[in-house]
Design a protein that fits this description.
- This protein has about 140 residues and is mainly α.
- The chain has one domain: Arc Repressor Mutant, subunit A (Orthogonal Bundle).
- Helix 1 packs across helix 3.
Length: about 140
Amino acid sequence: MELDDIEYWKSLINIGLTKIFILKILSHGPNHGYGILKQLESLSHGCCAPTFGTIYPILKKLTQEGYAKVKESQQLKGGQKRRVYTLTPLGIKAYQVAMEAWRYTIPYIHRAIESEGLSDVRKIENPSLLKIRKKSLKNKPISI
């Protein structure tokens, strides 16, 4: 781990974004690995550089843990069947919770990055809204 290497930090960001972007793509309907990869490239505007080696372990875990289901469809060249992934109701809920967590966190990250010191990071939300959001995030842990 090289903390002074920008590629290290990009890879950490890439991992987090790839997971939520896969959920986002599948929230719009069924898709196969290559289609997900192409949409990830488009959605991230080059920020993430996903590969099949990145997305298939995520898709496998989503499937194993009941967040997505997979079915084989039309046969491709070479005899392989295309695997089509679809979010389950649990996966849709996971996507909604993930979006809530990101929406809640991004303004704080932005402020922290843009500020000169820690004292410049200001509270940006009403405390009562914060309690509601924390409660909704505690309902079901998501391990992706």
